[in-house]
Amino acid sequence: LNSPGFFDPVQYLTNGNFWEEFLKRFGGATEGRVVDLACGTGELRRHITPQNYFGVDFNPDFISHAQKRFQLPNTRFAVGDITKNKIKGDPDTVFFISAAHHLDDTQMALFGRNLKASKVRKFILVDGRPKGILAHPLAFLDAWLGGGKYFRSPQELMALVRPHLKIQESGEFSAKLSFYTYPFLVATTIKP
Prior knowledge:
This protein is α/β, with parallel strands linked by helices. 36% of the residues lie in helices and 24% in strands. The radius of gyration is 15 Å and the shape is globular.
């Protein structure tokens, strides 16, 4: 799944109506200055019309693909490591979608410290967990093809984020025709 040409079709096939459900829950947080961490091929940008959008991902092929795909005003993409870099530009909302299962607990702690140091006002994490009779094969394929093997419950995600951010809401939702459920949390920076 490191190739953008393969990644996008697989996401559509396995996630069903994810974006429709995502926008019902979090669409109001997508209008201002948005940072999209682990943005992949920039799919979030396709579904929102923010004032400013900045997407960052570790994979240079994904970023190159996103830059060609979204040549829009106030839209930028860059290659970067979200576990090492602070967030700049004072965004209204920082999104981290379908990527937490790629980070082990140590990387999640580094990531959380960077969010806290960046004084993030609103952080929305949405990840995926395989469900149903295909859960084990999908988890295996995700780990083998894409390196994502740290599927967590909402409670496990909260335990990793809570030392760094104040959690405002958490839970899990489903989407029609999806092979996944979606643990999520909404948080803000803990005031010093």
